[in-house]
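Q: Given only this backbone (175 positions), what sequence would you predict?
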């Protein structure tokens, strides 16, 4: 009889432990469900007078600019990857040969007048900007299309782009 009472008591203990585990499990599910609610709903649920939780914004690497325009011009060219493909007079490390030599103070005018030019630019400045942002508008003879990245518009700030264009338009062809 004592053995029978003990087994019933163990069953009660087992049931109590099981119920406690269920309570903890459902409480955890409820907490997880609250954390998944959009920020607006969470704010509405907060009591007046309680400080709001700060939201930490996640920065996507795709949105981080290569250059801001505050850097020295040689650093902008390096950070943007221009030096890997182009020879850029005045930029010591720019020894690339995949893209044309960048002497756009002279060559921009010629390229705008070229019958093979398919872009929208009307000025040298617009041509250089277009050649960075939409490189397929004009392919320099002897160089392949689709080598120049098409994402510079998302990766360069306006300040960096302006600094690059200003520099490139100062470079004249040396005969």
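A: Predicted residues:
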């Amino acid at each position: 009889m004592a053995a029978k009472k003990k087994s019933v008591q163990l069953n009660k203990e087992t049931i109590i432990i099981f119920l406690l585990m269920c309570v903890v499990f459902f409480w955890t599910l409820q907490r997880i469900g609250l954390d998944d609610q959009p920020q607006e709903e969470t704010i509405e649920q907060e009591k007046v007078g309680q400080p709001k939780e700060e939201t930490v914004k996640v920065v996507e690497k795709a949105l981080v600019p290569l250059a801001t325009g505050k850097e020295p011009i040689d650093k902008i060219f390096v950070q943007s990857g221009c030096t890997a493909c182009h020879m850029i007079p005045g930029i010591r490390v720019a020894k690339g040969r995949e893209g044309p030599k960048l002497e756009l103070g002279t060559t921009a005018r010629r390229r705008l007048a070229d019958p093979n030019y398919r872009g929208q630019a009307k000025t040298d400045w617009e041509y250089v900007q277009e050649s960075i942002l939409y490189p397929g508008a004009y392919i320099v003879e002897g160089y392949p299309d689709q080598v120049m990245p098409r994402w510079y518009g998302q990766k360069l700030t306006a300040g960096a782009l302006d600094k690059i264009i200003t520099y490139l338009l100062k470079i004249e062809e040396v005969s």
